[in-house]
Amino acid sequence: MSFFQLIYLNVQIIKNIAAAGINVIVTGGSISDIGVHFIEKYKLMAVKVQSKFALRRLCKAIGATALVRLVPPSADEVGKADIVTVEELGSTKVTIFRQEKEDSAISSIVLRGSTQNILDSLERTIDDGVNVYKGLCRDGRLLAGGGAAEIEIALRLQKIADSTPGLDQYAIKKFSESFEVVPRILADNAGLNSTSLISTLYAAHQSGKTNLGVDVEECTIQDMVERGVYDHLLTKLWGIRFASDVVLTILRVDQMIVAKLAGGPRLPQQKGQDPDDA
């Protein structure tokens, strides 16, 4: 293909794209200088996205279909965005595709903070909240928080252990004690006596007050349902299942692999200088 044929092909492609009513071209590859010239001539905006993951997210957000070749797309393949602008957030220039009239399948949350540790904490908080919302869409059942569910599970496991003959009852009792870690950590973080508080929780749950848990704000035991503190059932179920699988995997290990220092002979250690020799 000659140089003039290449120019003609670029002109026709970009002209047909502009005739289809498209204002923004998003590509994952490089754009030639000739292509940039004709994109500016037809007053189009070109955005280069190097990440395939980001390109797929953008297509999902604006309802577009990624094309393998640069050809005029059909009406079903064209995405829609109300405003496409380049703005500066902090010291970074970003391209924003904003939807104002319609709801998008994906949204971006911009976090700003003074230190990286604050940003990491905010990111984990948002990630936990989004995952909890996703879990609630699957299963909306909730449990009393503040360690109330863990104490109730431990209490019921202890009752099962008491009625189990043989040595298995000791394993069940130890498994029930592992659930005390959640209220114990909450009590320690609140500055309370964790041992005394867990004993009080056991006594309260044995009397039928199954919703009592650790209130870190009031530094006492409160009804978690009345306080509005809940745990997601599905999250807690999978957490217990994964932790149990890890323990069972460790117990099945019958070999120990010890890592040794590699390399040649060790260098002799240098002794300190005697002050009398100075």
Question: What general outline do the C-alpha atoms trace?
Answer: elongated
> Mean of the pLDDT scores?
84
Poorly predicted runs are none
Topology, number of strands: 8
Question: Element order, helices and strands?
Answer: HEHEHEEHEHHHHEEHEH
Number of helices, where a helix is a run of at least 4 consecutive DSSP H or I residues? 10
User: Helical percent range?
Assistant: 40-55%
The assigned structural class equals: alpha+beta
Describe what this molecule looks like in 3D.
With 278 residues, the chain is α+β, with helices and mostly antiparallel strands. It has 10 helices and 8 strands. The protein has helices at residues 3-19, 33-41, 52-62, 116-138, 148-162, 168-177, 181-189, 194-206, 224-227, 233-252, and strands at 24-27, 45-48, 83-89, 92-98, 142-144, 212-215, 220-223, 230-232. A two-stranded parallel ribbon has the order 1-2. Strand 3 and strand 4 form a beta hairpin. Helix 1 (3-19) runs parallel beside helix 2.
In short:
The chain has 10 helices and 8 strands. It has helices at residues 3-19, 33-41, 52-62, 116-138, 148-162, 168-177, 181-189, 194-206, 224-227, 233-252, and strands spanning 24-27, 45-48, 83-89, 92-98, 142-144, 212-215, 220-223, 230-232.
Question: What is the strand and helix layout of this fold?
Answer:
Elements: H1 3-19, E1 24-27, H2 33-41, E2 45-48, H3 52-62, E3 83-89, E4 92-98, H4 116-138, E5 142-144, H5 148-162, H6 168-177, H7 181-189, H8 194-206, E6 212-215, E7 220-223, H9 224-227, E8 230-232, H10 233-252
Parallel strand pairs: 1-2
Antiparallel strand pairs: 3-4, 5-8, 6-7
Helix pairs in contact: 1-2, 5-6, 5-8, 7-8
